[in-house]
Amino acid sequence: MTDTRTQFVQAVRDRVAEVVVGQDVVVERMMIALLTGGHLLLLGVPGTAKTLLVNAVAKAVDLQFSRVQFTIDMLPSDIIGSELLDQATGKFRTHQGPVFTNLLLADEINRAAPKVQSALLEAMQERKVTIGNATYPLPMPFLVIATQNPIEQAGTFELPEAQLDRFMLCHRISYPTAEQEEEVLRRQLKMGLKRVEGGAMPKTAFDMIGGEPVCKLDDLVAAMSDVQSVHVSEVFMKHCVELIRLTRTHPAIEMGCSPRAGLSIVQAARARAFVNQRDYVVPEDLFELAEDVVLHRIRLSYEALADGQKPEKVLEELLHQLG
Amino acid sequence: MRVPGSEFIRGAAAVLLAAMQIAVATAAERGPGSIGMEKDVAVTLDRGDYRPKPLDDRTPLILRLEDVKPAEGGSFNYQFHYIAFEPGRYKLSDYLIQPDGSPAPLAESASIEVGSILVDSILPPDFNGELNAFGARPFPWFGGYRLMMGGLAVLWLCGLPALIWLGRKKKVAVVEEVVAPPPTYAERMRPFVEAAAAGELTTSGQAELERLMSGYWREKIGRPGQRMAEALSALKKHPEAGSLLRALEHWLHQPGGASRAEIERLLEPYRLPAVAVVEQEVVA
Q1: What is the ipTM of this complex?
Q2: How far apart (Å, rounded) are the C-alpha atoms in residues A68 and A73?
Q3: Are A269 and A223 in the same domain?
């Protein structure tokens, strides 16, 4: 793998690191989603820089970016758009919603009603949207990064398994380390004030996102093309299939992974290999990505849950069986 | 529509009906009493100091002395109030006593007669008031009721110790089962290593060999409870395991793979009997 190709990845990482402390794994997962066109669901408690990360990546790569804060009173037309009556001409014109973008941040996706979630997830799957009688293709690349707060469940609508399956990766964001938190505080102290038209406000990390994009859409497309040429061995595919099949036979698992999970592992492993400057995938890619690809696609049985088993532990058990 | 004089007729009928009821009641008081019906009776006796005998709750007649008045000729008029539970003739001598508690010496004729409330014509003349005939029969089993109850009691008393005895923990004979230990990673690897050395290892076999190699080294130098991804990363940093895993990756995953000589060199330490040597080195 040539360094010139992977420079793109390092440049984005460096730019994000200027704004966000740590979270290297999340940035890697976002790069994987960007390079494969797969959608990413970020699970994390409030204040773990989910929205900031997505903003920073979108600005680092020259992509159209939209952000939608999901609420319970949203309608599907708020996402995909609608037909409006133009009073000047007396004709209907199409208003395209925020889904017509390259990178869509769906913040707190579980706060929207199921019909809104369904409209978005349909767009994610088919990469086209129908408004009125006309069907419009979505821009390419089209990527949804959705966030979800795993602890606050009041007034939310949990995504069903069939819709979770549409997300290639579901990454659980953890708290930063003590050193990283100290660095966050240090950076905040240095930010100073933002002055606008005589007024002033303390700057936030969002104000620090700026500057020219470090790479263009062409660079991303070229990198995506390189990812497609990453070699996947027959042995690696055997490992993937074995893992997926193990999820279907484990006694603690009521619902195992779909074949889409296998496709996601292979695609994500290719992108991870590219990010790590390899032109072939290795078992390490499988083990690193298994949690993000598999966990949101399995459901433990009632007996296993009553027995106090956790999906993470069951998956580790499967991985140990595998390797 | 009102008929003239109808109110007079109605009133006369009511007076006549009331007079008939009084006549019937007087006749009933004069005649014999009926079971379950309270009744007064007047009897003339020779002395005036008789008292009612104390009764128990099984008496067929409850007799209460209401009043005693002197009568002509030195006799006394006794006014009794009674209720009977069985039909028949009751002698007053059975229900009265003298002041010293001795039975009253009264004639047979001094008695109270109580009849049945049932209609005489539908009952046999000798009906004694029993609705169902009852005759004692011997108990049909085990020589009698008492014997059977005694037997059951003995059985019950013996049953408890029997249950305790049967329910005691039995001593389990300890039989040492010889369980063959599960095959080690090294033993499981050998057929795949030999097949690889012979150039006959299939893709499935290659995948299995890689898993076993990884498991073999993880068992040797990995920490218990370590996440799989972390364990693999730690193995790659180990001087011996790391070089092996990288060589495996080169052979199995890199485009072009490894030459036959490289494969043989890689697998040499794991072929018979070299595995034992490798195990000893790792333990040391």
Answers
A1: 0.75
A2: 13
A3: no
